[in-house]
Write a structure and sequence with these properties.
Strand content: under 5%
Distance between the termini: 18 Å
Order of helices and strands: HHHEEHHHHHH
CATH class: Mainly Alpha
Number of helices: 9
CATH topology: N-utilizing Substance Protein B Homolog, Chain A
Oligomer: single chain
Number of strands: 2
CATH architecture: Orthogonal Bundle
Radius of gyration: 15 Å
Length: about 170
């Protein structure tokens, strides 16, 4: 983890409703929007990635300056595109029903895929940070029951793929 990554993680841990969102939080939001758009428009992740890089990142989007961490955004989308089958398998295993992933709302499904990708393929991001970030994102779009549901799914995945990292006091 580079010093810039550590600084970004520290800012994420301190994010409050009054503070502007961190660049990584904005990257997660942009990645969520990109996955949703790709699914709804039946476009490839690569096509949507190009659109976001050209037309959305670094611009004002619905009142939010989308000054996202471009490298983090790229890595999140690449992880989901490259490892979709493994990610879907991890999410499905954490759900009560084997067909549960496809039955979910597209935004929730995108958030679960991104959170799982971060837990599976970003060991530099502490699992508690990833879980909190994606639970907060889900909470931005849905009510509390869905946010609690997402937390439970992320918790199951984290305990499965990163055993021991959630032990001890919360950061």
């Amino acid at each position: 983890m580079t010093p810039a990554d550590r600084e970004s993680e520290a800012r994420e841990a301190e994010d409050t409703e009054d503070a502007p969102p961190s660049r990584r939080r904005l990257a997660r939001l942009a990645a969520l929007q990109a996955l949703y758009q790709a699914e709804m428009n039946r476009q490839s992740a690569q096509t949507v990635w190009k659109q976001f890089v050209r037309h959305r990142l670094g611009r004002d989007l619905e009142g939010i300056q989308l000054d996202a961490d471009r490298q983090f955004f790229d890595r999140l989308l690449r992880a989901v595109a490259d490892h979709r089958r493994d990610i879907d398998s991890a999410v499905s295993a954490a759900l009560a029903r084997s067909d549960g992933l496809e039955r979910l709302e597209p935004v929730l499904r995108a958030a679960l895929r991104l959170g799982a990708a971060e837990l599976l393929y970003r060991p530099d991001v502490p699992p508690r940070v990833a879980i909190r970030e994606y639970t907060d994102l889900v909470g931005d779009f849905f009510d509390e029951p869905q946010a609690r549901f997402a937390t439970a799914v992320f918790d199951r995945i984290a305990h499965s793929v990163r055993p021991g990292e959630l032990d001890g006091p919360a950061a």
